[in-house]
Write a structure and sequence with these properties.
Helices cover 21% and strands 23% of the residues. It is α+β, with helices and mostly antiparallel strands. The chain has one domain. The protein is elongated and about 50 Å long.
């Protein structure tokens, strides 16, 4: 079975301004992804332009989906060939929907 392509879509981006004010040093270039933005992982590989930190949060799930596996945590997702993963930025968490592509993705 050849590897599947995986669509990675930003579905939610939040900012915890109160936590940033309390604990974070100012940074110039915080996460610049936009809700609705998407990438295609070909063969379970990191798509160009996707944040390295976000990729590290989702890589295992993408690789599993690309290999044809799924149904994580015994039925966690309505679509067993998908996952909802958040990056590990506690100040600006971004939620990504990972979906195994149908043909033509």
């Amino acid at each position: 079975m050849p590897p599947y392509n995986i669509k990675i879509t930003v579905v939610r981006k939040v900012q915890h301004a109160d936590l940033s004010a309390l604990y974070e040093n100012p940074i110039e270039h915080a996460c610049e992804v936009r809700e609705g933005e998407s990438w295609i992982s070909v063969g379970g590989k990191k798509p160009e332009g996707l944040c390295d930190s976000a990729w590290e949060s989702m890589r295992w799930f993408v690789e599993e989906l690309a290999a044809g596996r799924g149904n994580f945590f015994d039925g966690w997702m309505k679509n067993p060939y998908s996952a909802m993963i958040s990056c590990n930025d506690g100040f600006r968490p971004v939620s990504f929907l990972l979906e195994r592509c149908k043909e033509g993705c």
